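#struct-pred

JT: dropping the chains for the assembly here, can someone run the whole complex?
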Amino acid sequence: MSARRTERLLNLVIALLATRQWLTKDQIRAAVPQYGEASTDAAFDRMFERDKDDLRELGVPVLTGSGSAWFEDEHGYRIDRDAYALPEIAFTPAELAVLGLASRVWQQATLAGAASRAMVKLKALGVATDTSIVGVEPRVQTTEPSFGRLYEATRDRAPVRFAYRTGGRGEPVQRTVEPWRITSWHGRWYLVGHDRDRDDARVFRLSRIEGLPTVVGPAGSVQPPADVDARAMVANADPRVAQRSATVRVAAGAGLSLRRRCAADTAATVLEIPFADVDDLAEEVAALGTAAVVGAPEDLREAVVARLRGTASVHAGPGAGAGTEGSVP
Amino acid sequence: MTPPVRRAASQQSATDRLSRLLSMVPYLVERQGVPVQEAAEHFGLTEAELVADLQLLFLCGLPGGLPGDLIEAEWEGGEVFVSNADTIARPLRLGLDEAVALLVGLRTLAETPGAGDREALDGALAKLSAATGDAGETAGVVSVALDDDLDPALLARVREAVDGRRRLHLRYHVPGRDEATERDVDPMRLLSLEGHIYLEGWCHRADAVRLFRLGRVIDAQVLDVDGTPPPQAVSRDLDDSLFQPSATDLLVTLDLAPGYRWVVDAYPYEDVSDLPDGGARLRLRVSDTGWVRQLALRSGGGVVVAEPSELTTDVADAAAAALAAYDTPI
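RK: done, full complex below.
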């Protein structure tokens, strides 16, 4: 099946490249033998629409137009030959090697398929890769399911809506956002954009988005400011750039991750920890169990107690597991 | 989790194969008489897969389907000749997402200390940007920031040990057990995953290859000892998961609330199924239950240890003990 479809697509590309005039759908149906498999007009339409979309996805510039000023409703198709071709690029073997490394940055990620298709195309240039290049190989994962949709919306400058959880406060809340940038910071993905509900710039962590975002406006309708510094915005929302301070008692030698947040040595038993995000710090303290106990502030203390209660209630007694009503922060 | 397997060319989608054919034709047209084996290697195919592609090409061509209209491909003598393919003799340009994926990848490499060859990176970025037009602007919407709060002196010492093959003494924080450990490591390479830089090396304490996140290294000293790893030290395949469980590890069942489904993607697992509430039931093997307990405690009920029951009780006890420290009833 796949081979038949590849033949059909290849014949379609050749027909649309070879023509100097706009080809009507009927002419295309006659020119590509594999369209003979379509028994009805509707079946052909579906096949052709899908093929056209797939070609455009691959980067093939399929144009729509009309050669006649009198019969404007009779649209035709062709491929712009100049726009079709890769401009002349002369990569050196070493440059092609780093491009190969760059394509592997996207491991199991949304853009991994696009990266490997790009490398296939560049192989047409026939440059042998210099395999001697070694070094740190960065890998980026996008395990957050919302990444693909948000990437597309940001690329297309379209507003999105999604359910967003701020930890420890119960139900997710619908947010409508004009997306500006997506950035990975310390291994986590963030969306930076204009929050229409808050009427202000906001940072969203992708792992806190529930379900898939939906596009709620036309492409091109979002105008990101020219001077967006996504990294700086995320850094300000990052716990490392802290505005508040917490007092946490820790057992001697324990709580190393908390000690690192405030550069305390292993002997200290009371830590003054700078922080910005209550939920982030509450998660970290709760994870340590009895080894770390919050003294102040009160909202952090409550957030930790709420987490511990939630955990205790779903693990109490026999039959813990599915069906148990847990409070999910 | 099943290890990733190279997909046979025949199992690829029709569009992947089309993309390869549109790349192969310009390559072959420019190199008439290239040996079948060389062309197959260039495209990462077996010779049989390459011949299958040539057979498909042979069936395509200009409308009409007459002999003179079809692409001609010949490989009888072990050398490939392709003609009558003028319409597709130039390589296809990169699609927007393809260019973006490479450009963001290159910029990520450029930010990674010790990645690739600087001159080649700059050259590739400049040429690709010039050839892909407005993709450069779109690529700006995605960025990756790596560990930027690493102690540069520490990174320099680790690099010195990797480059000079010296053994390292590490004080290392193991978060799952919340303890600092001391160990000697023969460094193998530095790599960057998920925004963090790791040292891969032969750990003499574990007698095995281990990954150490540099952000968790409390101190590192370069020892005046040869640090060549033993022959059994084999680098991990980066395309496999980072943490590889062993079949003897404890089998744990976790029930994940919808907001914690990311755990499915974060760790290798045995199997996963959907729960009625939109969450997931995950079975996975763990060598150290410390991180499971921590995950359950931090999730506040979003991650439930369903099995084994000893671990469920252990988590319940840990939560109760911690609550007692706050003088609050459960």
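JT: nice. Chain B touches chain A through 137 residues (CB under 8 Å). The two ends of chain B are 37 Å apart (CA to CA).
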